[in-house]
Amino acid sequence: MVTTGTDRRILVTGASTGIGEKTVRRLAEQGHRVVASARRKERLDALAEAYSNVEPYRLDITSDEEVTALVDHLKATGGLDGVVNNAGGALGLDKVEDGDLDGWRWMYELNVLGTLRVTQAVLPLLRDGDGGDIVVVTSTAAHEPYEGGAGYTGVKHAERMLSTTLRREIVGEPVRIIEIAPGNVATEEFSLTRFSGDAELAKKVYEGYQPLHGEDIAEAIGWALDRPEHVNVDLMIIRPRDQAHSTKIAKKGV
Ligand code: NAP
Q: Is the pTM of this model over 0.85?
């Protein structure tokens, strides 16, 4: 039986900024005990100062050793009821013929293998207790191609396949698999990372329309996690009203 309702222990990856940080706040406000993880521990410490039910935990999801140590820590401190696989990112907007192998490798390591590593590691903990939840933050890029996006759409499609396949493989067990697929969300770092620190290019992504806020996605995650135990929210695709496709955005004045 999946134990739903408040006061569950939930791990959030990529919690130091953006959607992950907003998700930590949201889940903490809903009454859950949140393990907030990312590499920049000082940012997590600041979150833990604001919420007594948030535990900061330094974690690089591309490291086998760090993920193993996390599981030991979780086992020793009460287990786990859910994970939000949120850490991820895009690099570049190159056409396939110009795609940078190192950039594609970075995206694969972070989005696909990082999510796989964490999911494999915590699954026994979720099975151990009263069951649990696995949230995967993919993207609309997991659902449609766009020119220049193959590196990112490729890894997000792979994350989606990981999630949908796992749901089929473990159906009947008390573990829910929930995919959240956002369109453009104006977070501080996502586009800066994509454009290797070029702030002008990053700013343009969000000009001329109202993009989503990190809170919009955090709210959806919080809602999906707090559904009654017999309800599995398979997939939520959430876009700004003015975005009909990754590259079809009704921009005004730009
Ligand atoms: P973001 O602002 O760039 O934040 C990325 C987070 O991932 C940070 O907390 C970062 O923290 C963490 N991270 C990066 N590398 C890591 C690693 N090796 N190990 C652990 N944590 C790592 O991204 P966001 O906009 O919030 O996006 C969050 C998720 O939503 C991503 O999966 C992204 O692909 C997806 N998404 C974003 C958008 C959007 O428009 N923003 C749209 C659709 C989907 P540290 O650097 O401190 O580790």
A: yes
| Residues annotated catalytic, as ranges | 152
Give which of 192, 186, 187 is closest to 206, Cα–Cα. Answer: 186
Ligand 1 near 85 CB (within 6 A): no
Using the mean position of ligand 1's atoms as its centre, give its distance from the Cα of residue 172 in Å.
31
Per-residue model confidence as pLDDT tens digits over 49-94: 999 999 999 999 999 999 999 999 999 999 999 999 999 999 999 9
Cβ partners under 8 Å of residue 129, min gap 6: 3, 79, 80, 81
Q: Find the length of the chain.
A: 254
Is residue 104 situated within a structural domain? Answer: yes
Asked, for residue 27, whether it belongs to a domain, the answer is: yes
- Any atom of ligand 1 within 6 Å of the Cβ of 92: no
Quick one: average pLDDT of 239-249? 98
Domain range for 178: 9-246
What CATH number corresponds to the domain at position 196?
A: 3.40.50.720
Q: Which of 32, 31, 1 is nearest to 12 (CA)?
A: 32
Q: Evaluate if residue 153 carries a pLDDT over 70.
A: yes
Q: Is 63 in the pocket of ligand 1 (CB under 6 A)?
A: no
